[in-house]
Amino acid sequence: MIRARLWIAALVVMSFVASACSGAATGPLAASQAPSAAGTSAVSAAPGPDIAIGLQTPLSAPGAVTLGQQIQRGSEFGVEYVNTVMGGVLGGRKLVMYTEDTQGQPETGVAGYRRLVTEKKVVATFGYVHSSVLLAVNEVAKGLGVPTIASQASAADITKKGYSIAFRTHLIDPMRAAAWLQLIKQKGWKKIAIIAEDTDYGVGLVNETKTQAPTMGLNLDIQTNVVDRTAVDMTPQLLKMKDFKPDLVLLIASAKQKDQIIDQAFQIGLTPAVPILNSNDEPTATNFWELHPKNGVGLMTIATFSPKQPLSDAAQWMAQKYQAKYNEAAIYASLNAFADVIIIAQGLELAKSTDPKALISAFETGSFKGWPSTPVTFPKADGVYWHNWSPPVLIIQFTAEKQDWRDAAILISASK
Amino acid sequence: MSVSTELLQQYILTGLMIGVIYIVMALGITFIYSIMKMTNWAMGEFYMIGSYVQYVVVSRIIGPDLWFIAVPIAGISVFFLGMAVERVLIRPMFERGMERRDEYATIVTIALALFARGLIQLWAGPFERTPGSNMPSFEIGPLPIAGDRVAACVGGLVALAVFWFVIKRTWVGLALRAAAQSRAGVQTAGVNILNLDQIAFGIGVALAAVAGALLASVYLVYPLNGMVTTTKGFEVVIIGGLGSIPGAVVGGLAVGLAEALGGALVATNYQNAYGFVLVLVILILRPRTGLFGETTRVA
Fold first, then answer.
1. Would the CB atoms of B219 and A232 count as touching at under 8 Å?
2. Where are the domains of chain B?
3. ipTM score assigned to the predicted complex
4. Going from the N-terminus, what domains does chain A have, and what CATH number goes with each?
5. pLDDT tens track for A132-159
6. Does B272 touch chain A if contact means CB atoms closer than 8 Å?
7. How confident is the model at residue A309, as a pLDDT?
8. Is residue A132 a contact partner of residue A153, using CB atoms and an 8 Å limit?
9. pLDDT higher than 70, residue A299
10. Are B7 and A27 in contact (CB < 8 Å)?
């Protein structure tokens, strides 16, 4: 009996330890670089009066872990850049980054933000991918006062609400919708079938598309299918879409559900006869062709970084380091996270203080070096453009198997 | 809304095919309960382990053309894993006549589920993977369907047939059926009930692993892929009746059909809820036994 209790206690403890460590993949099947452990962990270049920043990004399911890993990699280079090339901030103080795994879930994100602000005393948080998470976090952040930067979350409300703490360095839903509506107009497509996840991201983009289409002179016949984010079999919805005989399938989902929809649409013969346009830049990640070796050809997808786009000197430094360490090119998610870190550092220098209010004021008034050759600013503009800097948005199309995204055809190139 | 006959046929076919996999999953849960009178909350993690075994064997060793060899490998390996887990973690609860066995079983199996999930993420990372498939598409009536989905359905039926054979036509199966009727009675006949429990647990989790292996290329392989299927499995068990094998069959098909038809005809964003609607209906109409379960008298 006592032995049984000891076994059970040991199992319970091991289960919590394993869950806590579950973000760090170190075994033979692990991707090339293990993300940091879920929960709070630190990356520090040197001891001393460090300044803490907080990375909140999805590092485990059901979040978009591929993007989260890219963001974590980029942000680690950002810390290294600030501490070595920039020589630290505010008289040589080093940056320390603490990481919280949001798992793509709002409640986890809120809990992580509170820990970062109240326990780790971070001056800013960044790295958000899921709009639902950041919308929930910002409701807490507006009270605690520590600014948040949306690295890859695009829902309009994130900045549209006009919170002083909310900043974004990513494209916004109106731009995304405008890009694919521009493509639809070019191609003369009339019937659009949308399949979207039931999140702020998915539903927001559906509404934005429907709102903008008439303003662009488009009279579209749109069939909308909003699916439970946790569903794994979307075949019934895809059959309904196939029966609709659309000209285009607009896929507004992330992580595994996006991949499952791409596969299942192919399995029932919806694609490649009908092209799919994916709403985010996840297909530019390196594992895309591992998951879709046959049905990835012809996929159109949003991208936010053109290989022809000149990079800043900082981004060039990062791109070289990234290539050397990971033997692959840095993609937008990594570059943007890198830029967010150096923007925070520049903001601290401009503010000459770690006070969050001073930092916010510095963000609003300053002009910062990011990853592109043009500067980044956060104007106090109206509506969704409040505190927002957006990269240009592209629509690319894979035209060959295992094609590097940099060689994909560029169908649309647009900017604000 | 009006729906064409062909589309309706496609929905029904889709629902029935996925329902077969739900049956396999639910059978594992209900079989363990019928023998051991305990609920294994870690069934989804054994499903997940089965899918990872399938992925490793297919992608690293035998290739996608021989995928069918990996399925029994996944089942057999998880069978032995299940037996080991039962011996170490579950059996102590039976050996000493523990009073609050149900609570201990819940704690242990939930802890096991968390541990397995964390361990897989440590080993393989959180990323999705696929073993790949070279199977061509088929047309079953009006429905074009991927070969690996057909294979999963056929494999599920084969697994059910093997299970039926073992239970109905072997001495072990006879002993297991006797234990399901009366644990005390089977002991008086000289059968070691603890060894039977170990075998039953192994068979139950092996069924979950087979379901995971069959669906590895259909639904992708990732650390949380067992969670949704576990929920479906328990829905099926409640609908069909805990401990009832015919109930698992009927319940699995019912849930599969409900999700396919509800998601397509009613509202797409509540797809996972339609199974729960069936659960609610059964809990209202037959709360004690489900459709085919039987009341038991506790002496």
1. yes
2. 24-233
3. 0.84
4. 33-171+311-385 (3.40.50.2300), 174-303+394-414 (3.40.50.2300)
5. 999 999 999 999 999 999 999 999 999 9
6. yes
7. 79
8. no
9. yes
10. no
